[in-house]
Amino acid sequence: MCSDSIAVVDFPIGKMAVMPLDNPGLAHVVSDIQQLCELEGARPMKLATLGNRLDKKSRNFMEQHGLKLRAMLDFCPQPLRLWEEDGCAMVCKERTAHERENLECLRGKRRGEAQKMMRQLSEENAFQEVVREVMCCLLMVPDRTLLVSKIGNRLSRKAQDVLRATKMRMVQLLRCFLDDFILQGQGPAISVFYLHVDTKEHFEFTGPINQIDIDINLSRQRRLMELAADFLQPYRGEQSVSAQDILKRGFGTCLSSSSDACVVFIDCRSSAEQEVSSLPGAILQEDFTWNLLFEEHPKTLFVAFCAMGCSSAKWIMSALGRSHAPPGARSRLFWLMGGVASWAHASGWFQDRQTGRMTRMVHCGMPELLPLYPVGSGDNVVCSESVELSDEERLSVDRATSLRCARLGQIARESRLRLFPSVFCRDAVDILEGNVKAPLVFVDCRDESEIQVSTIDWPLVLTKEQFYVRAPELIRVGMSIVAFCTVGTRAGAWCEKLVGSLSQEDGGGHCLDNAATPQHRLLNLYGGLAAWLHCGGDLVDSSGQKTQRLHAWCKACADVFPVEGVQLVLNEAAPEPPEAKPFVSARKFSGRAFNPAEIIQQLQTLKPEVLSDSLSYASTAIPYNNSRPSQLTYGEPALVKKVWPERPVQ
After folding, report:
1. For the segment 402-432, what is each residue's pLDDT rounded down to a tens digit?
2. Do 48 and 193 fall into the same domain?
3. What is the pTM of this model?
4. Angstrom distance (rounded) from CA 178 to CA 207
5. Residue 400 covered by a domain
């Protein structure tokens, strides 16, 4: 047998064929087989299925020369694996040693485990090849944007096998490379945009992929929408739309000002904010006309937006209130709830107004919104102290602060009646205005980690341990003791416990004499540090310097602090502390109606002087109901004393 020929031994019985290696028909059959197996990757395929997928030219050549498919597999340049399974011949591409090594550590893992390891796995060549394929798919389309489902159909079998082996979805993988890809939308409408115009060989891991970051973003989004609800209290009856609704309904697939667009955005922000970026295809507020709404874009929805939503809502109300507003305008005009911050949480992308390119840069509008943006967006969020708030934004800030103060007063009243009814309280405004004649010593009832951030600005502030040591001295000189915490619940519980055990030894080992410590000299700061800030009080850090930082204690009380003048420090990834349960319970029932029998039963246990003090607070508290409009007069700045009324000093 010549060395330049090959013998096909799988012929029908009695036949033998010797064929040159450079035969074009044989080369075509081998190439066809190799290509079909490459497309399947390492996925097993029946030998009969492989034969049916061969093109007509290959089948005719094999029939003409009496060749069997099983024998043709040995001629392929890349090794193919052939075995029997349940009586059927199976074939697949043989993995190389490098491919087996790359995927061996991932096979058999549960869904999500590879995602947690993505920071390390992103350096693996297998994942880099998948991302490079996605990049090539996006660069082949004019706008470098495709739906995720279409990208998956264009990937090679090898790339699909990598995702299948790791049980990872395409969206999860691309969110690991946020400096290169922008994902927007939800569900089947998720689209991917490639940020660069040229190719890259290596992609750096940058995305928030772990569950902790996801939980933090959910917490920030909840706080953002709570703040937006306080900002937009007068506009609750108007038409608003969330960023999630825009993307979920498919509006985000065609965000431009062209005639076939389904959504056109209207930018109601200042020029300084617009210079950084805008929403895709947005038009300026002054460029909007009714002719644009009904003639040029007859089927388009218009969504106005600003930093939070107050300016855009005010603009829409003014536009609809004009006498020449068309009848059908109300069904076509919306404002974006939560503003550009909510758009960032929904993974929406922004557009540079100068170049028209997609970007992640955005102006937050006001410094108070900066901590509410998603994790990892700090370098992309511009915060300029020089930007002045508009009249509507200033009014919304004052309104939100007043609503939060009213909410705090309602919760403080409920907390006192439920948790420490026998404890006397003192208003922060009475202390700050000098209406309390007796000398005061403040006792900080918070944890050490909270105290290290900041505390009340007062000449004498002690921790609980320091108070136990100095209690006899302080009582001897006739000082009144004011306990405080974040919102008053922990300090009130501490006072309640101390009132019941005045004659017993406590933490420091010193005996507190009942006669020397009258009950009315052990006070709780009504509303805690939150009320102190609402009334204009200051904070100092551990070195005695004034600061605006304050530990928020728990996420449930984050919406009772003033909007301005405080920087909340909060471990958003940590669960709520166990001692916060009484506060959460009091908050839950702060708007409920009391059962008369329950009230009478509770009041019968109180001393007359305590009962008088409790009823005084209950009678002066302004009810707060988050479901009905604010009791404050719209159009004038809200004052703290309107929702935190003064009481006669006892």
Report:
1. 999 999 988 988 888 888 888 888 899 989 9
2. no
3. 0.68
4. 5
5. no
